[in-house]
Amino acid sequence: xxxxxxxxxxxxxxxxxxxxxxxxxxxxxxxxxxxxxxxxxxxxxxxxxxxxxxxxxxxxxxxxxxxxxxxxxxxxxxxxxxxxxxxxxxxxxxxxxxxxxxxxxxxxxxxxxxxxxxxxxxxxxxxxxxxxxxxxxxxxxxxxxxxxxxxxxxxxxxxxxxxxxxxxxxxxxxxxxxxxxxxxxxxxxxxxxxxxxxxxxxxxxxxxxxxxxxxxxxxxxxxxxxxxxxxxxxxxxxxxxxxxxxxxxxxxxxxxxxxxxxxxxxx
Amino acid sequence: xxxxxxxxxxxxxxxxxxxxxxxxxxxxxxxxxxxxxxxxxxxxxxxxxxxxxxxxxxxxxxxxxxxxxxxxxxxxxxxxxxxxxxxxxxxxxxxxxxxxxxxxxxxxxxxxxxxxxxxxxxxxxxxxxxxxxxxxxxxxxxxxxxxxxxxxxxxxxxxxxxxxxxxxxxxxxxxxxxxxxxxxxxxxxxxxxxxxxxxxxxxxxxxxxxxxxxxxxxxxxxxxxxxxxxxxxxxxxxxxxxxxxxxxxxx
Lengths: 267, 251
What we know:
The complex is a heterodimer of chains A (267) and B (251).
Chain A: H1 4-34, H2 53-78, H3 85-97, H4 107-137, H5 152-155, H6 157-176, H7 189-197, H8 200-227, H9 236-262
Chain B: E1 3-9, E2 18-24, H1 33-46, E3 69-70, E4 73-74, E5 95-99, E6 108-110, E7 113-114, H2 117-126, H3 146-156, H4 163-167, H5 174-185, H6 194-207, H7 218-222, H8 230-244
Parallel strand pairs in B: 1-5
Antiparallel strand pairs in B: 1-2, 3-4, 3-5, 6-7
């Protein structure tokens, strides 16, 4: 401790420490003396944009909209199955060659895949984070709790989302890679399509998942509009109407192909 | 009317509580729900028991003190505060469950009393305007569009009872915070602090162990003042606008 500079520096640090501690404990004593009811301790706030619950919801809304736009394109693309194997396989080939020869093969496809992957991960992260926050917000459950307003779609949006995440994994392994497909890998997309939906359990799994998707979107479209601050009393009916129409169109559009194959309309 | 009440009894914040059954006889249908609880408490006191603690103050539906979960619905079957709920809404022989508001942000103090000071801290984070004091300004000095003043008034009817938090499956305080943000954000007097206000109030709300909104609508359905979900949309709009304008989130 011979160096005066070191001593000054240490004094600075200790001095600040000391005054800070004493100030806090003083305020604490003051609070105890004046407040009669038990007061919850003020929790430390986490800084940063993405710790804000509304920002997390905005992330859900924007990534959700990206995925809905993709779903609409995907659903329309699927309908090529009604034009036969050549049209369907040709469509599949076209997706892999968009932009050729200006860009190498599969460039567009990979851009879409990366955007979707980022959206799914961000959507999932925000959902889990808000789910955990909601669990913290009700540590003791009610003995009796009745529903006044909530719809089935809004109530099942979290578990439905988890099931959809599992469905997406299965779906990619089944029809994109063919790993779990009855026809196996190295087949054409049309072969895999027919093989999957000639199987009743797989078809049922797809149909149930698509109904869950419809419920998820019915609530999600309204919630996204609300989260992005675009609803009001006047627009509420219209927004709910659009949510119903879009979710029904997507669900019906997706179910059409598997059911047509299952019932032998396409072979 | 004769009723069976199942009431949450909890001695203190740290102790475990449980539902206890009580029988109340000779309840008049014209009594308010709180008067019925008064009758029960008089009986409990005469019997030498500990009376049921519950919050109440004005008993005319404007202070927001009373708030009970009655048969699983915040403020009971009528869309009004508990003091404005009358026993004619129930039938003879009913079994009624009475619980306190349940939220991480509302710790139980005793029985049916919860500590709602989290709401005060949300207000002190930004639910105010800075105005020079002195003589009241001339009323026409700052014109306010009729549409905005109506919407601001609707939001300002929030009495901070906490039913929105109690009813929300996520325990979210968004309807409360949104009502306060809308109320001030719609008026010219609230503009200077508009961006900072929404960020600070939402920041404080998140810090108080309230959940996030999932737009389910339970809050608005039980709000004794009928605050609309539209206010939540307005809060979201203001918050995202504030971030786009470069405001720094509350830390």
